[in-house]
Design brief:
heterodimer; A: mainly alpha; 68% helix; B: alpha+beta; globular
């Protein structure tokens, strides 16, 4: 196993994940836009938010990849399929807790189930499995994360 | 800012007929997430939880027996009056009996972080004003529109109602010993001058119930009132009908779904447009049709936060269906609005009771004009549009060029065969006109500007040659029709650049043929539904605004004076009014009616200022 492989895998994996989500958006499958959601934590300017959001997204991609790496090290094995399994869990976690629950609670511009008058949120909350962003959002998100995980796992193994 | 009708006349409460009170007897309270209807006899007859569009826990307004309610009233004969506490959406009802006077303050408290607050909380405080008044109360929760089994029990001495992942508790102080029966939690007590009681109803969805202390409840209610007053104090309106305008704005704020910024058309479903009829629709969604009026109201009255939030929500929600627009979207941004019937008898027997709205799937070409007008207002106010939104708006304009020749269901969502409605064509013209303006200012891509301009001319030609009543030389309801449609006034209000004399003739014809006193019918002719309906209040306000914009200021102001007095005692408007009886009809409070109040008042005041009056 190689940390450099993990770092490279994180970069490529995030690239694939982001491209897949963007393509799904263009195909009207989802309104999910992770860079936009992340970027709007620091600015309300939509264009700047997307630029900043991509940087944050890639940084997040590296952080999560090294969490995978820590588990790979702990169990002494890595690979495409194991990475894909981690990606599946990661995608489900993102949909149910990370983006679905935690992000609305800390995002300064996103509504949460507790937001009340006189406030008015700039960004609608994603809801359970991010279904507010389209009925196929969970499928698209989980598949994209499986792809990300597989690439991280594969690169980690290849880098050995 | 002061609430409208702050000191109303005390009146005997109208007796319930078959368990129902006239819709005019309802006031609304809300917290930006959900809203409740409170009758003048102290009964909460409608409350969806946790959100405005969630299944009702109290739905007695739609089924007096099975709907569930939270009643609180004197145990002896009484008269009552009520008002909103100034600058708030907190309701105060004063009950006068032969034994004394008691005052009930109803609030859905706002979220705060000073103390651990319930997810949602209804508070009902009773104050003794004079004498000693025997009071009685009863809570009959019916989760999931009464379709889910509700368990009533006590935990730690607190009465609760639970089902699945939902629960509510009844925390009471000074309100008598609560009795937990088979299907109700109830109590009775005596409130004396200077004394008080409090019944709080915290609600939890997918989390444990928070059981607050009385001091926390009192403090939270005070903070709720202060938050509303603070919000209202920052709003701007100086002109005639200021009380009606500011109450309308407070109601509009109550319709803003704070978690997303969407604005609901109303807080209720299936209140009938004709008692006993089938025209019963679910309005707990956000209609693109209302978007331009909504944004204009927010911008005119100094609500930039709400304006930004609403525009962002609108552009996000419509992304999935882009470039086609759905007629309406859910408050959380979802597009699915499947319609089905509930096994309830409906208000005074008006069935079906529908949840969901099948109109979402209709083609309504006017929505494109509304959205483009909204974008135009937003761009004018902020001076910019995001590049991605600009690209999408240009694609919408392209779609209008491709589809404007199609017949549609029109703004009134008729369920008869699609037609070439005049107002739809006018709004297509508005869409392309605003797109051209935006492109000329480099706010959206201008590659197809020439096409938009030439199509705009084609649409104008179609309207001026095909959508005219030869007999009256005015705009007709649809191509080749002799019927009239008050919605054509929207073309005028949005600046459709047609024949000025023809528009004046249209206003005259509408006044003569669809107007009865202050009331204006929506249209003449058929709509694919049986039964009649009341006068559509919004059309009356549109007519007043059109009169002002054509220089007929005295007529406009006189009509507006009449219309302002049609609100109920706390300043609410429903969708329609029965001209014969003055009864409210349709869902309430109706956002479009209140938007029309604001728009007409601002326009007439503006016209007076221009005229130097």
């Amino acid at each position: 196993m190689s940390a450099w492989g993990t770092a490279a895998g994180a970069f490529v994996g995030t690239l694939v994940l982001t491209t897949a989500l963007r393509a799904a958006g263009e195909m009207r499958l989802t309104r999910m836009d992770l860079p936009f959601l992340l970027g709007t934590t620091v600015t309300a300017n939509r264009t700047r938010a997307k630029a900043v959001g991509y940087l944050m997204h890639f940084l997040n991609g590296e952080i999560f990849a090294f969490m995978y790496y820590a588990v790979f090290l702990a169990i002494g094995m890595a690979g495409w399929w194991l990475g894909a399994l981690f990606g599946l869990l990661h995608g489900l976690f993102a949909g149910t807790a990370l983006v679905g629950v935690l992000l609305p609670l800390v995002h300064p511009r996103m509504g949460s189930p507790l937001t009340s008058a006189p406030e008015a949120a700039l960004l609608e909350p994603p809801g359970f499995l991010m279904l507010n962003y389209g009925p196929t959002t969970p499928v698209v998100t989980v598949l994209a994360h499986i792809g990300y995980g597989a690439i991280v796992g594969g690169f980690t193994q290849l880098g050995a | 800012m002061r609430a409208v009708h702050e000191t109303g006349r005390r009146r005997p409460v109208v007796a319930r007929t078959g368990g129902y009170v006239p819709l005019r007897e309802y006031a609304v309270i809300g917290d930006g997430r959900t809203a409740a209807l409170v009758a003048r006899d102290g009964s909460v007859d409608w409350l969806g939880l946790p959100d405005m569009d969630s299944p009702a826990v109290f739905g007695a307004v739609l089924d007096a027996d099975r709907g569930g309610r939270f009643s609180l009233e004197p145990a002896v004969a009484y008269r009552s009056d009520r008002r909103y506490l100034p600058g708030t959406n907190v309701l105060e009802t004063t009950f006068v009996t032969s034994q004394g006077t008691a005052r009930v303050t109803d609030a859905l408290t706002l979220h705060d972080e000073v103390a651990l607050a319930p997810m949602r909380e209804l508070q009902r405080r009773v104050d003794g004003v004079s004498g000693a008044v025997p009071m009685r109360w009863s809570v009959r929760p019916r989760f999931g529109y009464g379709t889910r089994t509700t368990r009533l029990l006590r935990r730690a001495g607190v009465p609760m109602a639970t089902t699945g992942s939902d629960a509510l508790a009844i925390c009471s102080w000074g309100a008598g010993e609560p009795q937990c029966g088979v299907d109700a939690i109830s109590g009775s007590f005596l409130v004396t001058a200077g004394g008080s009681a409090l019944i709080a109803m915290p609600f939890a969805h997918q989390e444990p119930l928070v059981l607050p202390a009385r001091a926390e409840c009192d403090a939270r209610r005070e903070r709720t009132c202060a938050a509303w007053r603070h919000w209202a104090d920052d709003r701007i309106y100086t002109g005639r009908w200021s009380q009606a305008v500011m109450r309308s704005l407070l109601i509009l704020k109550l319709l803003v779904f704070a978690p997303s910024g969407a604005v609901a058309a109303a807080v209720t479903t299936s209140l009938p447009e004709h008692v006993g009829g089938e025209r019963n629709w679910d309005y707990r969604f956000s209609w693109v049709r209302d978007s331009a009026f909504t944004l204009a109201a927010f911008l005119q009255l100094g609500c930039p936060t709400e304006a930004h939030a609403y525009f962002w929500w609108l552009m996000h929600a419509s992304q999935l269906t882009h470039p086609r627009l759905q007629v309406l979207y859910r408050l959380d941004g979802r597009a699915a609005t499947t319609e089905k019937d509930l096994p309830w008898e409906g208000y005074c027997g008006s069935s079906p009771v529908r949840i969901g709205n099948a109109a979402a799937g209709q083609l309504q070409l006017d929505t494109y004009g509304e959205l483009m007008q909204t974008a135009w207002l937003y761009a004018r106010a902020t001076g910019r549009l995001d590049a991605d939104i600009g690209r999408r708006l240009a694609e919408l304009a392209d779609l209008v060029c491709a589809t404007w020749r199609e017949p549609d269901s029109g703004i009134w969502e008729v369920r008869s065969a699609p037609r070439h409605f005049t107002q739809s064509k006018m709004m297509c013209w508005v869409a392309l006109d605003r797109a051209a303006h935006l492109a000329e200012r480099s706010l959206i891509p201008d590659r197809h500007l020439a096409r938009w301009q030439s199509t705009r001319r084609e649409i104008a030609t179609f309207i001026e040659t095909r959508c005219v009543s030869p007999r009256r030389n005015c705009y007709a309801r649809a191509a080749g029709s002799e019927d009239l449609d008050a919605a054509v006034l929207l073309g005028h209000l949005y600046g459709y650049d047609g024949d000025v004399q023809r528009m004046r003739a249209t206003i005259t014809a509408l006044g003569q043929e669809l107007r009865h006193g202050p009331f204006v019918d929506r249209y003449s002719g058929e709509d694919g539904l049986s039964g009649a309906e009341g006068a559509f209040l919004t059309c009356s306000f549109w007519l007043a605004e059109s009169l002002a914009r054509t220089g007929q200021l005295a007529q406009a102001a006189a009509l507006m004076d009449d219309l302002v007095h049609l609100a109920n005692d706390v300043g609410l408007y429903s969708e329609e009014i029965d001209p014969a009886t003055g009864d409210f009809l349709g869902n309430l409070p109706q956002g479009l009616s209140h938007l029309a109040v604001i728009s007409a008042a601002c326009a007439i005041n503006g016209a007076y200022k221009e005229a130097g009056g």
